[in-house]
Amino acid sequence: MSRRFDALINDLADTEVSTRATNQFSRTVGDLQGNAIRRRNLRLYLDEIGQPTILLIGEAVSYRGGRLTGIAFVSETLMLSGVDARTRRILGADRGYRKATPGPRLSTEASATMVWSTIAEIEPLPLLWNALPFHPFNEGEPDSNRVPSANELLLGQRFIERLLRLFPIQRVVAIGNQAALSLTKLGIEHVKVRHPSQGGKQLFVEGMARVSQSRRA
Question: Do 76 and 38 touch, CB atoms closer than 8 A?
């Protein structure tokens, strides 16, 4: 695999988070063996994404998605079972992706499934990321999701800036309010679409259709 993303992944691994968050890439805290697999999964994803021109920024890593796989908006089921053969960008064990958690059970996440089913026809495939690339949870409930704080959004901003230097991004899309807030504070021009969770799927699909159409215009 390429060494192009070493600095980014090392920075992620070395970032300290609060006691109400998980750094799923850490080399010193948590599930070290699993974290190493998640770092490798992320590197493989970034290597394979090619030359994306659209960057989709979500809110934060979820406990059923990126916290387990290392990849934003990707559950274990999506990572190992594939997304859509027509995209020719299938995630799967045969491509080198590995499950970082014990046992045969695979995680699923509704938002991840909805996002991938929506972006599968966009060419080139958009790059997926989060305003906070770590997992924030409620106190004492590691298997929960919470809204990232202002300081946590600030923590994630340098990673967004780095991605904009690493890839030929022409358009940035915020998925939801927290992502839009972070991009606004960075002074990054962007379009906001509805997050697909909590009944927002259709509005998300419609928003992404407008993004795709305006890009072709």
Answer: no
Contacts of 207 (CB under 8 A, 6+ apart): 173, 191, 192, 193, 194
Per-residue pLDDT tens digits for 27-43: 999 999 999 999 999 99
For residues 92 and 154, what is the distance between their CA atoms, to the nearest angstrom?
33
Amino acid at 6: D
Q: Residue 80: which of 89, 71, 92 has the closest Cα? A: 92
pLDDT tens per residue, range 59-112: 999 999 999 999 999 999 999 886 655 544 556 767 889 999 999 999 999 888
Q: How far is CA 75 from CA 3, 68, 100, 118, in A?
A: 25, 7, 11, 16
Q: For residue 66, give the nearest of 55, 75, 57 by alpha carbon.
A: 75
Local structure of 175: helix, strand or coil: strand
pTM over 0.90: yes
- Alpha-carbon span 54 to 59, nearest angstrom: 16
* Signed CA dihedral, 119, 87, 128, 52: sign only: negative
3-class DSSP assignment, residue 184: helix
Q: How many residues does the chain have?
A: 217
Provide the sign of the torsion angle of the four alpha carbons 58, 63, 64, 70, taken in this order: positive
| Complete domains list, the chain, with CATH | 6-216 (3.40.470.10)
Burial (CB count <10 Å: 0-12, 13-18, 19+), residue 199: exposed
